[in-house]
Amino acid sequence: MPKRAAFLPQIGITLDPGAPESLQRQIYQWIRQAILSGQLRAGQRLPSMRTLASELGVSRNTTSLAYAQLLAEGYVQSKVGQGTIVGPNIPEKDHSSAVSSSGLVMSEEAPTPLSHSARRLRQKQDLPARGTGAPRPFRAGVGAIDVFPYKLWGQILARRTRSTLPAVADYQDPAGYRPLREAIATHLALTRGVRCQPEQVIIVAGGQAGFELLAQVLLDPNDLAWVEEPGYFGSHKALESAGARLVPIPVSKDGLQVQVGRAHCPHARLAVVTPSHQCPLGMVMSLRQRQALLQWAEQANAWILEDDYDSEYRYSGRPIEALQGLDNKGRVIYIGTLSKVMFPALRLGYLVVPPQLVDIITVVQRHFQRQVPILEQLALTDFLQEGHFARHIRQMRTLYKLRRDRLVEALGRELGTSLHVRVPEAGLHLVGQLPAPLSDVQIAQEAGRRGLELHPLSACYLSPTERQSGLVLGYAAYNEEEIQAGVHTLADIVSHFKE
């Protein structure tokens, strides 16, 4: 349907019937901004509701509702014999704002100073933004959401809505639904070697929310925190938001190099590690480094945040047992997510915290109202206890191994030596290193323009001197045809930059 246009004095109103805002709201926004920007001045007469409706091709009721909103907020006045006029008490002309195509006010500068963390995020705008909606090759960190058993999940939700929800509709324990915490504790003991009681399990709104909660509880401004180099930028942002100073510690084939951390920053407040499947490079932290890390944490009176983000999907042998299972001193906090196993929009994860932290974390959860909606917790309890969760993991492990192999084969065939691929033994992504002087940022940006989603490896580094050029490629969400077509496009892009 074509857009409609009409003209008030000095302004044009363009309505888009396909926009999310109603036509009445769009008219209101256009006139309001014209008044605030000085295009319409105090005392200036507006067209009658009938005339404006005729010009815009909408009903008189639509323009009447828009004018009524403007009148209620004091932007216009209605006087007998004068019609509708711009009100007299309007703020001075605002030169810093413009009207977008939807009529929304767009400001070039933030009206108040930004935090240090927000400024750092703004500096990352040259990198491709994480996509929303259906994933495009090769967005990392997302599984095959199209094959999740949604019908079964819907049946469980409906059953719980009828049978249980009325009894738990009041405010709930901020630590989460007790039967779900029990089910997660049992699952982790059997599959990950995590040692805990249900009381130590705290339900959070995804792994990232867990990091933010822990940063708030454990860190003061300017505290030092070890992070893996390269590492997961999401955890970096959570720590920086709490005012921490990040200390990048290199990883090798054995994982985080604890001796480097001891030498350069022995008194850090905490360390963030991905020992079962290093993010993003994929190696497993050796037993020697695990023991060294636990010893350091005890001596430094520090915490270890163990991010176990996708180790459910290991393609050879059993999943690597968690670092938390080796901890006898209550230093490790285990962070898990269900969004990658089920579907991202679920936004549900969990923490396993030492007993001495349970009370304070629960208090912070209650104070900031970060609890997960109860209905999803009810349904997930059944999904775990009835065996659907374990069955889904088994099925996806087979599918993801096949898709990993297809991607490795296609990359080898199409790119050859132009991309050195590390074949992962676990997880939902792989890393390909680019030869110098190719820029992974430029390649990722061009890929975005051509329908792909790639994350540059260099963005995972904090130290410019350590930075390597490469691509983080997810494979779990894409069928064979999508993988083949995506690799063909990627090969064409890399070939272009090599010329």
Strand-helix topology:
Blueprint: E1 4-8, E2 11-15, H1 23-36, H2 49-56, H3 60-72, E3 76-79, E4 83-86, E5 97-99, E6 105-107, H4 116-123, H5 150-163, H6 178-191, E7 201-204, H7 207-218, E8 224-229, H8 233-241, E9 245-252, E10 255-256, H9 258-264, E11 270-273, H10 287-300, E12 303-307, E13 332-337, E14 349-352, H11 358-368, H12 374-385, H13 388-414, E15 420-422, E16 429-433, H14 440-449, E17 455-456, E18 470-474, H15 480-498
Parallel strand pairs: 8-9, 8-11, 11-12, 12-13
Antiparallel strand pairs: 1-2, 3-4, 5-6, 7-14, 9-10, 13-14, 15-16, 16-18, 17-18
Helix pairs in contact: 1-3, 2-3, 5-12, 6-12, 7-8, 13-15
Descriptive account of the structure:
By secondary structure, the protein is of the alpha+beta class. The protein folds into 3 domains: 4-107, Winged helix-like DNA-binding domain superfamily/Winged helix DNA-binding domain (Arc Repressor Mutant, subunit A); 121-142 and 391-498, Alpha-Beta Complex (Aspartate Aminotransferase, domain 1); 170-385, Type I PLP-dependent aspartate aminotransferase-like (Major domain) (Aspartate Aminotransferase, domain 2), CATH 3.40.640.10. Helices cover 38% and strands 16% of the residues. It contains 15 helices and 18 strands. The strands form 5 sheets. An 8-stranded mixed sheet has the order 7-14-13-12-11-8-9-10, with helices on both faces. Strands 15-16-18-17 form a 4-stranded antiparallel sheet, with helices on one face. Helix 7 (207-218) runs parallel beside helix 8. It is globular and about 90 Å long. The chain starts with a strand and ends with a helix.
